[in-house]
Amino acid sequence: MQRLSWCLVAILFLSLPLASRAQLGMSRPRTGQQMLDGIIVKVDNQIILRSDVEGIVAQEQARAQGKPLPPDLRCKVLQSLVLNKLMLARADIDSVTVTDSRVNSELDRRMNYFVQQVGSEKKLEELYNKPVRVLKEDLRSQVRDQLVQQEMQDKISGKVTVTPREVKEYFDKIPKDSLPYYSTEVEVGQIVIPAQVNDKAKQAAISQLNDLRGRIQAGESFEELAKKYSQDPGSGAQGGYLGYFKKGELVPEYEAASRKLEPGQLSPVVESQFGFHLIQLIERKGDQYSTRHILLKPTTGAADASEAALKLTRLRKQILSDSISFAKAAKDNSTDKGTSGNGGLLANRQDGGSKLPLDKLDPAIFFTIDTMKVGHITPPLAYRTDDGKDAMRILYLKSNTPPHQANLLDDYQKISQAALNEKKSKALEEWYEKNRNTVYLEVAPDYAQCKVLAAGTE
């Protein structure tokens, strides 16, 4: 079997947004240019479609921009997909699951990302000609599978580490004429403070929900009012319906209020990190309960952001006067969980390090730091968080590394990550060899040359 070096990134390929599922059924290619879609691999009750492979291949061809790709690309893609399906099949056998709460959280995160990319929820729905609730349901099983795969992958290779000696040995094996050449890289830090919602906006939301509560008690439909007024993009279009959850799967304030209710009863207005809720308990079933809600999110204004800007201005002054480090200020004050624990530094998703290719930066950051000197910190800047909330932030240019050929001194993090990926790939390959005979595996004849069933072939 060929080395499964692609297995570590296969889950990322599988997360292509809103990918359509083609018809099922094993099928051979048509004569001519067009090929029928269909099942090409079965792993127990898991399947791989021809379109799954071809979609990833097409994406890689687009990324290559005319550069040659490996002749066995399709087989490498198929092998990584088979590994993922094997992990799902074994997860069923080993009872590895993920909670509905985690799935819903990931769906919400993706929807927020998609909305930000296209500009608005309405534009997203127009783009795919579907309401957001349908888009989420289209993605639900895909997201659940990806999260289960991540759980299995973590069980298999999550504890794998590399020592400095192993990193050096890995680097020394790379031919000198094959060492990569890195473009300009920077280290950028940020401290994020959200704009505070003022009391007037909060009271307006509470008053509106109390008014809706009275209308429901007077006989109006909760579902219809939720469709009209709720600002939850996932449940609003479904009449506020959230589904079934167990203890600990929803935010504490929401869960505590829900568990006090009898079926059909309405809660008072409840505040959580997401905004203000009006909740109705639908039913309890064992240790699960189902609810519907109307969510209102009070908006912030210029005056609300000014407090965040003032606090950041004071922090910037303290950092520049050396009375506090940027890392300490970020840890103690930034609300961005992704960076606050890392000294405020943005992470490179490719290798986990803090050095970012200048040409791959978010344009908002690139045009801000393009003329900055190392050590400089911007004044407070308006910012929109990943979950769509108004905030302010300051940016810090920690380092600026000129273009260079890879070396252990400047690029230890990247080389260490590459060495770790290779070691994890070996662990996954060993797991595959050990477990591939524990499930039913069938491959379509026209993909037999990929040898996903063969042991130990290179």
UniProtKB/TrEMBL annotation:
Residues 183-283, 286-396 form the PpiC domain. Residues 331-353 are annotated as: Disordered. GO terms for molecular function: peptidyl-prolyl cis-trans isomerase activity. Keywords: Isomerase, Rotamase, Signal. Residues 1-22 form the signal peptide. Gene3D superfamilies: 3.10.50.40, Porin chaperone SurA, peptide-binding domain. PANTHER family: CHAPERONE SURA. This is Peptidylprolyl isomerase. The lineage of its organism: Bacteria, Pseudomonadati, Bacteroidota, Cytophagia, Cytophagales.
